[in-house]
Amino acid sequence: MSSLVTHLLSLGLRVVRKGPMGSVEGAREWMHEPKDEPSPPLWLTRRHWITRRQVGGFSTFTVRPRDVREPEKAVLYLHGGTYVSEISGWHGVLISRMVDAGCRVEVPIYGLAPEHTYREAFGFLHEVYRELMADVDPARTLLAGDSAGGGLALALAQTLPEVDLPEPARLVLISPWLDLTMSNPDILEVEGADPWLNPVGLMEAAKEWAGGDDLTEPRLSPIYGPMAGLPPMDLYIGTRDLLWPDTRRMYDQVTRAGGEVHLFEEEGAVHIHPLLPIPEGGQARARIMRTVEEL
What we know:
The protein is about 40% helix and about 15% strand. By secondary structure, the protein is an alpha/beta fold. Helix 2 (about 25-30) packs across helix 8. It is globular, with a radius of gyration of 18 Å.
C-alpha cells in the first residue's frame, strides 16, 4: 500500500500532469511552453563547486566537492523530463548526494523537443563522455539517468563501442523510458494506476523527439538495441509506473543475453520514486548511494 504522502502527491499529479497530457492538444500546448532556464539552483551552487562549459553548441555542468582534490570517481547523469522539460530541483538533490559521496558529477544539458531531436544528442553526449574519460578511469565511472534520461543513458551505453569509447563500470536507470512506441500491451493494465504519466502525451513527445524517424530506432528506444556486452545495471521502478512493464521486459532481455542486471521494484511506488521526497523513495536512494560509494 502506498504511503499517505504518496497518495496526496498522486492526487495532485492526476490533476496537474496526467489530466492535461490526456489529449493531443494538451500535450502539444505543454511541449511548446517556454523552457525553464537550466541553471543549477542557488542552494546547489553554494554547497558545491559548479562549472559550466560549451560542448558542440550545448552546455554541460560539472559538479564537484568544494575541497581542492579532484575526485577519482565520476557519475554522468542524464536528467528526465519526457525529452521536453529541463532539469529540475529533484534531480539536484540526488546529484548533490552523489557529490557528497566524493564524485565528480557531469550533467549534460542536451537539446529538448520540439526544438531539437535525438539526432543532435549523441554527438554531444559522446564528446562529453570522451572528455570525462580523459580525467577519470571508466572503471570508477557510473552512467545514470531517470525516465527519458534513463532511456538515453542506456542508448548511450549501447553506442559507446561504435565510437571507440569504454563502457562505464555500471548503469543506474531510474524509471527508464525504454520503448517510445508504447506498444507493450501490459501498459494498459498499469495506466489506471499511474497518477502521473499519460500514454497520449508520451506519444506526442516521442514523435517530436524522433523528428520523423522510426520509433523503434535503438537510439530512440534502446529496448530494441543490443543487450549483450553492456555494463552491470540496476533498474529502479515502481508498480504504479507506466514504464514498469517495459522495465521488466528489458530485465528479461538482458538476463537472456547473459548480462548482469538487478531489478528493484517498489510496490505501490510512482514514476521516478527514488528522486521524490516520499517514503517509498528512501530505500531506493540509500541503495543507489551505496552503489555510488562503492565505485
